[in-house]
Amino acid sequence: MSLRASKTAIATAGKQADVELAKLAAEVERVSREFSEPERSNRQGTYHQLLAVLMRMRMFAGGYVSEDQSVYGTTIEQFNVLVAGVHLFGRRGVRDGLGPLAAEIEQLGRRLMELTTADPAEPYPRAFAQAYAERVEQIDDATYTLIEAMRADITRDILDE
After folding, report:
1. Exposed, middle or buried: residue 97 (CB in 10 Å: 0-12, 13-18, 19+)?
2. CB count, 10 Å around CB of 89?
3. 1 three-state secondary structure
4. What does the alpha-carbon distance between residue 90 and residue 94 come to, in Å, rounded to a whole number?
5. Which of 83, 94, 115, 144 is geometrically suited to a Cys-Cys bond with 90, CB 3.0 to 4.6 A?
6. CB–CB of 105/139 below 8 Å?
7. Are 105 and 146 in contact (CB under 8 A)?
8. Per-residue b or e along 30-46, where b marks 16 or more CB atoms closer than 10 Å to that residue's CB
């Protein structure tokens, strides 16, 4: 085989290798997208449920009253479960955005305990509404910050915003 034929064969093999590498990279990208979509969907569901629980708390504070005190405890339990889900599955930006909101809900819990301890006869719904009202601006600000982080995560690579 001549030197020229050898160089041509090497160049052809190099180009074939480049084509195969490009095909492989495209396949890796396709498989990655295929497997990341269920993960994104799971995060989206967790985020949506968390926002629903936060809106329920906001309703309690805004005058929706349940005579069944266990509804409030169940709502806080659901909040805690969903926060754990965000810590496990959420992207860093969402986990970081959750911190201030979690701190506000802790403040809400402390104030609620103060109010119910100071006056055990105080109806729980009224104490909850008062404790929430005292921090409503901070809770709302922290909630909106978290919503923006969630939206950025879920719409990443989908929407051009």
Report:
1. buried
2. 16
3. coil
4. 6
5. 94
6. yes
7. no
8. eeeeeeeeeebeebeeb
**Residue entry with tokens 């659901």:** 78
Interval 93-108: pLDDT, tens: 999 999 999 999 999 9
Statement: residue 160 has pLDDT above 60: no
CA distance 82 to 86: 6
Written as six digits, the tokens of 143 are: 């909630």
- Residue (of 59, 40, 76) closest to 151 by Cα position: 40
CA distance 24 to 30: 10
Chain centroid offset of residue 82 CA: 9
Element (H, E) at 147: helix 136-155
Q: How far apart are CA 56 and CA 50, in angstroms?
A: 10
Asked if residue 78 lies in contact with residue 105, where contact means CB atoms within 8 angstroms, the answer is: no
